[in-house]
Amino acid sequence: xxxxxxxxxxxxxLAYDLLEGPEREQLLTHLSRCDTCRATYDSFREExxxxxxxxxxxxxxGPAEARALERTLVMLGAQxxxxxxxxxxxxxLPAWVWAAQAAAIVVVALTLFFVFKPVEPEFLPVAExxxxxxxxxxxxxxxxxxxxxxxxxxxxxxxTKAGNELTIELPDxxxxxxxxxxxxxxxxxxxxxxxVLTVLAGRGEVHADAKQVLVRTGDARIHTLPGGRLLxxxxxxxxxxxxxxxxxxxxxxxxxxxxxxxxxxPASRRYGSIALRDGESLRWTPQDIEARDADxxxxxxxxxxxxxANEDDMRRLQVQLGELKLRLDHLAxxxxxHREKWFEELFQSHNRGGAFQVKINVEGAGLVSSIALALGExxxxxxxxxxEVGFEITRDHSRLRFTETTPEGxxxxxxxxxxxxxELVKFEREGKQYKALKDSTRIAEYCRKxxxxxxx
Length: 456
Prior knowledge:
- The protein is 31% helix and 30% strand.
- By secondary structure, it is an alpha+beta fold.
- The chain has four domains: 8-116; 128-302, Jelly Rolls; 311-358, no CATH class; 366-449.
- The protein is elongated and about 125 Å long.
- It starts with 7 loop residues before the first helix and ends in a 7-residue tail after the last helix.
- Residues 58-64, 78-98, 305-309 and 352-365 have low confidence and may be disordered.
């Protein structure tokens, strides 16, 4: 009795695990008795292993899916072309049989490819203890190997970019919406021990809920108080991800209070803190800070008097300081801020520094002392008034001016590269005032070092 052999395409389907139930059992039983069919089946199993290994090798080595799949299909096509030749592994069969086999191979190849291909995360993971803010809508991008990539959250202390309009939940319960391409970070502000949203470039809107939200534009810290809404527009260089640094600063920053209250605290003690209300705004540049009320009127923040201050100047300064203090008092009443430690420390530090000491002896508040030095192409000047001490450097038609309430504070404001010039003057206390004097010994040393004639 002649043995009935299964069709090759049935053995192909068996080799690729495409059969189930009685049909599979019948074929396995036949293979246990027929060496010829078992050899054909074994060759098909080898081909299946080649397909699987090719897909796994290409997919796991990192190429894109399309390239890995293309290589696999090329391999399958090459094997199909050699199938009808005598030296091929597969026995000669009608074209429709080979078409069926090729289709089965492609199906299995595709299945194996998508099973074994590496799955790259759609978003870069952010550890729980590194989350600065959660994303409510939009895409947050962070720099990974010099390229902006989507992240599942906004990491702490990391420059982040809005891939499109991005809304985030802030750690203090507030919310910020930032326009596409805005660059910002969330970090801990050591001054008040609270998270602060720093905007380096772009536009955004901040909403404070039950707690205040801290925002930084330039070097001015803005407390958006509960129920407040703040608009932010910042010009800065943030296009090159590789160029971003922790100390990157914008060129121009503007904020406007659209609802509620905000308290602006400049980093420089040259300026007083100011409480802003609905419609009032602030503009920061590296050179100056300017506030405007809802009618567009400028609200002076500078606390320093100029060396030529006269009686009228001092009266205006007295009014200015009184207005700033009144604004803070009203803000504290509206939000019960005198119970807040950070606010009391801020308020008291201003009082100690004289920013809100409005009982000024106007008639004696002019220039107390001044000196000037010509050192080659460099000019140095120092002065004192009843309100401040000042220091100025003139070089190459540019001027650097620094003012503070104490010589110690003034020295901290002067850049380290200019300390050599700053040491040429000294401030001595006379009663309640300071007097600016030349340090003759250091001036002589400076002139010898730089081959300059001794100034008269």
